[in-house]
Amino acid sequence: MSDLIIFWHRRDLRISDSIGLAAARQESRKIVGLFCLDSHILDRKDVAPARVTYMVGCLQELEENYRRVGSQLLIVQGEPSIIIPQLAVALEAKAVFWHQDVEPYGKERDEMVGLALKAKGIQIQQFWDHLLNSPEDVLTQSGKPYTVYTPFWKNWIEQHKETVAPKLDNVQGLTAAEITVAEEVGVIPLPTAKDLGYFWDTPLILMPGETAAREQLEEFCNRAIAEYKEQRNFPGVEGTSKLSAALKFGAIGIRTVWKAAVEALECSYSDEAQGSIETWQKELAWREFYHHALYHFPKLTEEPYRKKFKDFPWENNPEHFQAWCEGKTGYPIVDAAMRQLKETGWMHNRVRMIVASFLTKDLMINWQWGEKYFMKHLFDGDLASNNGGWQWSASCGMDPKPLRIFNPFSQTKKFDPEGEYIRQWLPELSSLDTEYIVSGKIPDDEREGCGYPQPIVDHNLQQREFKRLYKEL
Ligand SMILES: Cc1cc2nc3c(=O)[nH]c(=O)nc-3n(C[C@H](O)[C@H](O)[C@H](O)COP(=O)(O)OP(=O)(O)OC[C@H]3O[C@@H](n4cnc5c(N)ncnc54)[C@H](O)[C@@H]3O)c2cc1C
Fold it and tell me: Which positions are catalytic?
């Protein structure tokens, strides 16, 4: 058996600030990266072409980074519990390391791979990396998982957070003979997203990979973070970090992100800036909250957290759903957001909340339809955060109080008062008066003239009906 350690990458597509890679480097100099194109994930119906394109972009840079430090990233395709042990045996690897996952499929897959490797006499080591605190570390006094955010935050913020892990460097990869062996077992060149069956021909709004993610973080911490509390709510303003895809795929380490926030806090010059940075830290904690929740309650992927909601009499009108997906509901803020999603694979958080409230509370369509549609389009689509966001919006998840129903027009008035965001994504409305766009009271002839649909439902009636049905639950 050689000194080789295989590091299996999944949602950690980087070589800096990686707990598991740093641990592997302490044990050996001979380290190769591995990524498995897993058909259980890539063949699912809710995979977004933009997300695969972003992921492949991250893998391209990861491949390059391994080359730079003296090693390789190996790509395989197939069933992880078969192909990974085969490769490890063929290369006579000493161990396979990886980072733990919170998703139900990921947990099951890792267990299978672990058992198969151990059966072949290969060691395994697993680490928590993609969260600042592991789900087992943040529990109530009675040892239970939190189900409400605020007490979770109070405990979580007090917990020790690891420092940034050292970047992988000065390693030794496979020899030419070992590469031939790896190829015989099934190592392939990195395919494109198109090769994998995913077509996304619009340029991504963000560059994938480690370098771009670090630059994004730096730019955000130098500028927008100090005004985040105010600016984060305006969908037409670049007021947030746009780091969600990088965090989902681990193009940046969460400790690096946290360190930047802490340093920004230390250097902040006003109460307003301090409040903004703390607000951003609380958003990072929402991500942890939802990931912990999924780890402890895997059934969240199948059903509402509040069981009573299983019986909610959703209308599930397919025509209304179609209009929502296409951005043709007659509600400008909803339609603008849905078009932004379809065209770019991205949607601002404020409008994610508005369209999710509209789908569930105005159209009374099951939140799971919206959850799937988002996953099919978002390039930051992440099971835990998306599920958490949808259950929160539908009021069937954790933290359900107060009952939140977003009024699309008062939201527009507050967060897109000049209708700039709406005009950007609904060019057919661009020449209308701001008052019409923001209030939604577009005269019939103007509506007809620009081919914009009448509202498909009446918000006031629908919200009353939702409240009634909610009360009955
Ligand atoms: C219905 C719905 C669906 C969502 N689906 C996803 C999803 O699939 N993937 C995803 O990453 N986020 C999702 N979110 C959360 C949030 O909208 C995005 O994380 C955020 O818009 C990303 O933009 P940003 O990186 O500029 O965030 P910033 O405002 O800069 O926040 C920093 C980071 O904190 C995390 N974060 C912020 N807000 C939330 C939140 N409410 N829940 C969880 N994490 C948060 C993200 O990782 C984000 O990158 C969803 C929210 C809703 C309401």
Answer: 283, 286, 314, 349, 367, 390
Q: Please write the tens of the pLDDT for every residue from 108-143.
A: 999 999 999 999 999 999 999 999 999 999 999 999
Tell which one of 217, 276, 283 to mutate to probe ligand 1, the residue whose CB is within 8 A of the most ligand atoms.
Answer: 283
CA distances from 85 to 89, 179, 311, 386 (A): 6, 16, 45, 32
The bridge status of strand 123-127 relative to strand 5-9 is: unpaired
Q: Is the CB of 371 under 6 A from ligand 1?
A: no
Nearest CA among 125, 168, 171 for reference residue 28: 171
**pLDDT of res. 2:** 83
CATH class held by domain 130-164+210-296: mainly alpha
Residue 132 CB–ligand 1 contact under 6 Å: no
Q: Which helix (H) or strand (E) holds 31?
A: strand 31-37
pTM: 0.97
Which residues, other chains included, contact 3 with Cβ-Cβ below 8 Å and sequence gap of 6+? 28, 29, 30, 94
Distance CA 73, CA 31 (A): 10
Q: Is 406 helix (H, G, I), strand (E, B) or coil?
A: coil
Both tokens of 38, joined, read 């897993």
Backbone φ and ψ for 280, nearest 5 degrees, come out as -65, -40
1-129 under CATH 3.40.50.2300, yes or no:
no
Which tokens belong to 39?
A: 């058909």
Nearest CA to ligand 1 atom 29: 240
Fold of domain 307-472: DNA Cyclobutane Dipyrimidine Photolyase, subunit A; domain 3 (1.10.579)
Is the bond preceding residue 402 a cis peptide, omega within 30 degrees? yes
User: How many Å lie between the centroid of ligand 1 and the Cα of residue 349?
Assistant: 6
Whole-number Å distance between alpha carbons of 296 and 313: 28
Adjacent-strand bridge partners of 34? 8, 74
Residue percentage of the chain with pLDDT more than 90: 97
Rg (CA), the chain: 24
Domain boundaries, the chain: 1-129, 130-164+210-296, 307-472
pLDDT per position as a tens digit, 427-463? 999 999 999 999 999 999 999 999 999 999 999 999 9
Residue closest via CA to ligand 1's atom 36 equals 283
Instruction: Please check the confidence at residue 361 and state whether its pLDDT lies above 90.
Output: yes
Give the strands of the sheet with 5-9, arranged side by side: 73-77, 31-37, 5-9, 95-99, 123-127
Q: Whose CA is closest to 335, among 454, 246, 432?
A: 454
With a 6 Å cutoff on the Cβ, whether 244 touches ligand 1 is yes
